[in-house]
Amino acid sequence: MSLAPAGVLVAEAAAAGRAVAAFNVITLEHAEAVVEGAERAGTPVILQLSENAVKFRGGALLPISRAAAACAEAARVPVGLHLDHVKSPDLLRQAADAGFGSVMYDAAHLPYAENLEATRSAADWAHANGLWIEAELGEVGGKNGAAPLDPHAPGARTDPDEARRFVADSGVDALAVAIGSTHAMTSRTASLDHALLARLAKTVDVPLVLHGSSGLPDAELAAAVAGGIRKVNIGTALNVAMTEAIRTHLTGADPRPYLTAARTAMAATAEAMIAVLN
Ligand code: G3H
Ligand code: ZN
């Protein structure tokens, strides 16, 4: 089955009224576990590497992207390879040669006009290089360890009319929207603004993407998909599963027992969350 463009997977999910799960990969075990979970669920999945994960690798993209691509190529389900939350133009320009089919360019922290300008230029480059591109409008809080945004603060929610204009003027293929989720939550207690999601789904004519999905309970995730979300980004939930398993199995000097437990726990988490989205 192997490597498939994320844009195609999202379009197929949209046509079927489903969403594709996109999991953040930090280690090889993350990539192996996500593929295992998706194979068990029998659905396509996206492996995504964030700019932060690349920084964790000392700025080197290829060692981890090639490992993830190799896992994708060996998979029994279609697997997309996506570069996530890119701010660095230099990293963006490595995406095509490194085997990615898509990128998320993140200028959501900038004022509207600057976000639009930077995103339009990223979209022009991405399309010229055959890449599908996602951007963000209205900032989903909690990035890079930042405190969650006040949900009532300006910019903490995506305005539907602004979103429609942003998509038309930037040319992006998908839009990440701020509807109440927050990055890096370790408990699944958040809730979404479903009325706003309904307005966005009606107004914006590209697939909508949910970030910070680890903080949402199953019922909220399922309601998000029913409301029009077509790509669901999940990172922290895998890390919670991995770290809990390592804590439990950390004995002796051999890393294989606790890494095996970590991979098994992450695969179970991935499989369970994929099932909710389908
Ligand atoms: O782009 C990545 C995601 O938005 C992951 O967020 O770690 O809160 O699940 P999360
Ligand atoms: Zn995100």
UniProtKB/TrEMBL annotation:
Name the positions where Zn(2+) 2 binds.
106, 136
Q: Locate the active site.
A: 84
GO terms classed as biological process: carbohydrate metabolic process
- According to its UniProt record, which cofactors does this protein need? Zn(2+)
Cofactor details (free text): Binds 2 Zn(2+) ions per subunit. One is catalytic and the other provides a structural contribution.
- Its Gene Ontology molecular function terms? aldehyde-lyase activity; zinc ion binding
Q: Keywords for this entry?
A: Metal-binding, Zinc
Q: Which NCBIfam families match?
A: cbbA
Protein's recorded name: Fructose-bisphosphate aldolase
Tell me what organism the protein belongs to.
Streptomyces katrae
Q: What is the lineage of its organism?
A: Bacteria, Bacillati, Actinomycetota, Actinomycetes, Kitasatosporales
